[in-house]
């Protein structure tokens, strides 16, 4: 037991659990090899592992830092400003999530199969996404205006301050 | 097994720890997301296994994964009662799965610094653990993408083997992760009271104590509180749910399922419910379904029935759902001849399995003995009191309680009944 801890780094249960895990995964690999299109399956798994971490992440981290930095510049100008960054972040994130999840419908990538299955076209989904996004931004903007107005009413001579102390999204 | 290497200044890896700036990232948020997934993922896995079992894959014709091997050990004869069972399990599987996507993304965001921890491992145990992350991280993204792209009719990989075998590889990594991290999760959740956190606004938001990898050593000033993050993630999940779940829940909610594939229905009147595969796409023409159409029953006897013959038989009416693997469903009132009556007509007094053939020329399905015998398993001739429309399977379709949508074969041409042994 101590030998194991010193040379392996954890107890026997840890080792057993991980070996069992890899055994199941290896068996799954053998099942996939027997299926048609197995190369595509392995390739897709690899793509999933890589793309999110090494491509998506830097892009939206950069975008978010830009957003936060531009809000900080606004605050420096001593206007009576409720922090607006979350009022942009929230609708952007929700809208982008919907786009990411339903892009084949929105961009009509599966039109032929969709028509065959449902009898309708995918043309409606772009409009649906734009309308939903519009509602999200309008709601967020409306709440921002409301909070700005409430902040102004409570302390009309305080400039650059924060009237409402917190950001809870809708 | 808590990570006690808190050496923030000594990072030489590809991304040093001070590059991570979020002041709210830390064990508490990670653990909240982790707890939600701890509940949600097993539900997804089990409803997913049920979904495969519902195909009765041990009947060879119905098995989309004939290579399943040991992963089929759990299979059982799929039930026919209650009639809404598949509608429930598959509706939960798809709609909960969609709603969990923002939570998964938030969890991945919250543990991102750990991806770049340096050195990559300090013991064999740690190396094996990090390798198992390949299964859980790659696996969850693989499962989410193959599942969602499938319901959007956009399959870059073969859905059935990919999604099924991928689930097993993923759950192996998930089990290890839960085993290793459960203690950490409980510890982190206990460190802050949830209700206090819900009352903590932006002005009071402080970073958590420095830990072994998640908390930023030099965070920026907070721009959103932890409760704000929870509201953002929860709000995104709720939005996704509201814009998709209606197409299985039905009723007024169907009109809001703007990103569902089946929230619209053709026709008005009795046939006003979503179509899955149009007659045109299936190659069905009016001439194939005219007065010369016959349903052939094969068993000990061969019987050929016209639609009028069928309408003259004793008809049963039942409210049954059509529930598809893509997650949508619709409940309608069907009228037709029970399959067990047809079996007896063909001479199979104690019916076993039945093979269904359609005018489509493909999509043959084998029904189990239990499905044939169920009193509400019908050869439907009418829906909601009117004749089936061509898109809904005229002249006759099969409808079986709690069967997946593809087993409710449309444009029937022949049924082969076996005697049970």
Total helix count of chain A?
6
Alpha-carbon Rg of chain A, integer: 26 Å
**What's the number of extended β-strand segments of chain A?**
0
- Average pLDDT of chain B: 92
Largest sheet of chain A: none
Q: How big a fraction of the residues of chain B is strand?
A: 5-15%
Order of helices and strands of chain A: HHHHHH
Specify the overall morphology of chain A.
flat
Shape of chain B: elongated
Mean pLDDT of chain A: 83
Biggest chain contact: A-B, 75 and 84 residues
How does the major sheet of chain B shape up? 5 strands, mixed
Tally of individual helices of chain B: 11
Cα distance spanning the termini of chain A = 54 Å
Tell me which oligomeric state these chains represent: heterodimer
Low-confidence stretches of chain A: 159-166
Helix content of chain B: 25-40%
Helix share, percent of chain A:
over 70%
Class from secondary-structure proportions of chain B = alpha+beta
In summary, what is this structure?
The complex is a heterodimer of chains A (170) and B (421). With 170 residues, chain A is mostly helical.
Write up this protein.
The complex is a heterodimer of chains A (170) and B (421). Chain A is mostly helical and 170 residues long. In chain A, 75% of the residues lie in helices and 0% in strands. Chain A has helices at residues 2-7, 12-33, 38-76, 85-106, 111-118, 124-154. In chain A, helix 4 (85-106) packs antiparallel against helix 6 (124-154). Chain A is flat. The termini of chain A are far apart. Chain B is α+β, with helices and mostly antiparallel strands and 421 residues long. Chain B is 40% helix and 13% strand. Chain B contains 11 helices and 10 strands. Chain B has helices spanning 27-53, 85-115, 124-151, 159-191, 194-199, 226-242, 246-249, 279-282, 307-312, 339-345, 369-373; strands spanning 295-298, 302-305, 316-323, 329-338, 351-358, 365-367, 378-383, 386-387, 397-399, 412-419. In chain B, the strands form 2 sheets. In chain B, strands 2-1-10-5-6 form a 5-stranded mixed β-sheet. In chain B, strands 3, 4, 7, 8 and 9 form a 5-stranded antiparallel β-sheet that branches. The longest helix of chain B is centred in the middle third of the chain and has 33 residues, at 159-191. Chain B is elongated and about 80 Å long. Mean pLDDT of chain B is 92; it is low at 1-10. Chains A and B meet through helix 2, helix 3, helix 4, helix 5 and helix 6 of A and helix 2, helix 3, helix 4 and helix 6 of B.
């Amino acid at each position: 037991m101590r030998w194991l801890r010193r040379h392996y780094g954890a107890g026997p249960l840890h080792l057993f659990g991980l070996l069992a895990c890899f055994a199941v995964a290896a068996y799954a690999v053998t099942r996939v090899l027997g299926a048609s299109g197995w190369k595509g399956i392995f390739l897709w798994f690899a793509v999933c592992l890589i793309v999110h971490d090494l491509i998506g992440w830097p892009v939206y981290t950069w975008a978010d830092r830009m957003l936060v930095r531009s809000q900080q510049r606004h605050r420096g100008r001593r206007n009576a400003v409720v922090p607006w960054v979350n009022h942009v972040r929230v609708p952007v994130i929700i809208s982008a999530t919907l786009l990411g999840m339903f892009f084949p419908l929105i961009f009509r990538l599966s039109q032929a199969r969709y028509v065959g299955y449902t009898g309708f076209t995918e043309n409606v989904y772009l409009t649906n996404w734009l309308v939903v996004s519009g509602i999200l931004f309008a709601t967020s903007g409306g709440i921002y205006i409301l909070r700005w107005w409430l902040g102004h009413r409570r302390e009309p001579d305080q400039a650059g301050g924060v009237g409402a102390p917190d950001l809870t999204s809708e | 097994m808590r990570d006690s290497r808190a050496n923030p200044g000594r990072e030489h890896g590809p991304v040093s720890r001070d590059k991570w700036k979020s002041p709210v990232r830390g064990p508490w948020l990670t653990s909240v997301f982790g707890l939600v997934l701890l509940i949600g993922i097993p539900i997804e896995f089990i409803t997913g296994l049920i979904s495969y079992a519902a195909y009765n894959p041990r009947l060879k014709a119905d098995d989309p994964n004939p290579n399943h091997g040991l992963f089929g050990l759990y299979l059982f004869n799929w039930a026919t009662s209650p009639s809404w069972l598949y509608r429930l399990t598959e509706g939960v599987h798809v709609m909960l799965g969609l709603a969990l996507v923002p939570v998964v993304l938030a969890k991945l965001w919250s543990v991102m610094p750990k991806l770049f921890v340096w050195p990559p491992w300090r013991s064999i145990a740690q190396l094996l653990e990090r390798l198992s992350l390949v299964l859980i991280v790659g696996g969850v993204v693989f499962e989410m993408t193959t599942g969602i792209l499938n319901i959007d009719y956009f399959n870059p990989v073969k859905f059935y083997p990919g999604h099924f075998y991928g689930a097993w590889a993923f759950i192996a990594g998930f089990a290890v992760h839960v085993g290793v991290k459960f203690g950490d999760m409980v510890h982190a959740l206990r460190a802050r009271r949830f209700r206090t956190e819900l009352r903590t606004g932006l002005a009071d938001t402080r970073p958590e104590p420095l830990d072994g990898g998640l908390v930023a050593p030099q965070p920026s000033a907070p721009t959103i509180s932890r409760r704000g993050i929870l509201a953002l993630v929860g709000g995104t999940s709720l939005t996704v749910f509201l814009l998709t779940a209606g197409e299985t829940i039905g009723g007024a909610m169907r009109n809001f399922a703007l990103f569902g594939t089946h929230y619209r229905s053709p026709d008005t009147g009795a046939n006003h419910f979503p179509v899955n595969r149009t007659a045109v796409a299936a190659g069905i023409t009016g001439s194939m379904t005219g007065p010369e159409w016959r349903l052939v029953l094969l068993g000990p006897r061969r019987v050929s029935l016209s639609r009028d013959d069928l309408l003259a038989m004793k008809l049963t009416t039942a409210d049954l759902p059509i529930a598809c693997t893509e997650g949508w469903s619709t409940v309608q009132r069907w009228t037709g001849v029970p399959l067990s009556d047809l079996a007896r007509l063909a001479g199979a007094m104690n019916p076993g399995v039945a093979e269904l053939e359609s005018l489509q020329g493909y999509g043959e399905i084998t029904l189990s003995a239990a499905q044939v015998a169920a009193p509400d398993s019908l050869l439907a001739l009418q829906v909601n009191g009117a004749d089936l429309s061509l898109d809904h399977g005229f002249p006759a379709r099969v409808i079986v309680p709690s069967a997946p949508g593809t087993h409710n074969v449309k444009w029937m041409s022949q049924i082969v009944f076996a005697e049970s042994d």
